[in-house]
Amino acid sequence: MAITGLNHVGLSTPDIDRANAFYRDGLGFSEIISFAWPVGTPGADAGLGLTDTAASVTVLLTGNSYLEVLQFNNPRPIAFDSLPTLRREGISHIGLEVTDLAAATDLVVVSGGSVDASLSATNNSRLVRDPDRNIIELHTSSQDDPLDYRQLRVHTPGGLDGEPQPFTPARRDVVKGLSFAGITTARTADLTDFYTHANLNPSNTSSWESSASAPRAALATATSGTSTPVNVGNAYLDFIEFRDQPIALKPTNARIIEYGFNHLCFDVTGIDATHQALTQAGMTCFAPWINMPGRTSAMGYALDVSHNPIELLEHLSARSIMWPGHLSV
């Protein structure tokens, strides 16, 4: 059993058409599938741990991973902050590997995003906002970078039946892919201990003691802190602990549907064994994992030890909608 990759990041939005226009039509992600489920879908309710859910969904291919865009029509999501911030516990932002910072910034703006003058920029990264004002870190890898996109590799399960579904590759002239997910935490050790139970090993923790010495734009928002990257194969997790002042904690009644980057989905081998190992390590499950219609995959939603919503996904056929064989670095 193991986590073998970051399959997708979930994005909860109040306007799926606007989000798709930004990420698909603007940044160049390609649409794999769009669908919806109505109120009265027991499987969706059970997986999310809620009742009477209804949502529209678009799955976008970023290149090396997927982005799952969701508009929940029932129940209505909430926003933790009137303006999304890096200083809120949880999945605070995503990092996009880009070919050129200036060109990528221009693309974000012309596609409906924005540059917030209060957010930082460094030589190799810049913070911008999508149309919902969620934070994106544009990043260009450099030598000895702990989040070096060039070191990533895609794991494709072998020996499975079925022909992969046809797909359109992402446009990668400016945005090469989703490089990392930034997770703000009050206790990095809790997360690193948890994810080692799924065979993920953190890199060395680095620290900074002034905004000027911070190696990336997201870290420069604080005068001191630590960054602990974890290579998931095709992408990184970056556990960020700010030390200059306390972060805002996630509300205890937060649901998996709330606005923003709301969950991480991991490809796994041996979903039953992985569920058991992570449950013993402190994972909280909403419901037992289930086989998806058509039995092309099995999945289950849960909370990691820091209450970040996660999804475990095992591919049972190459026909799986979010098949890793479509991914490349």
Report on the structure:
The chain has 329 residues and is of the alpha+beta class. It is built from five helices and 16 strands. Strands 1, 2, 3, 4, 12, 13, 14, 15 and 16 form a nine-stranded mixed β-sheet that branches.
Indicate the CATH architecture: Roll
Sheet having the most strands: 9 strands, mixed
How large a portion of the residues is in β-strands, by DSSP E? Answer: 25-35%
Helix and strand composition category: alpha+beta
Shape call: globular
Search tags:
single chain, 329 residues, 9-stranded mixed sheet
Quick structural summary:
Helix content is 14%, strand content 33%. The protein is α+β, with helices and mostly antiparallel strands and 329 residues long.
Topology of helices and strands:
Blueprint: E1 2-12, H1 16-26, E2 30-37, H2 42-48, E3 54-61, E4 66-74, E5 90-98, H3 101-110, E6 125-129, E7 135-139, E8 175-184, H4 188-196, E9 206-208, E10 225-231, E11 236-242, E12 260-269, H5 271-280, E13 284-285, E14 290-291, E15 297-303, E16 309-315
Parallel strand pairs: 1-4, 5-7, 8-11, 12-16
Antiparallel strand pairs: 1-12, 2-3, 3-4, 5-8, 6-7, 9-10, 10-11, 13-15, 14-15, 15-16
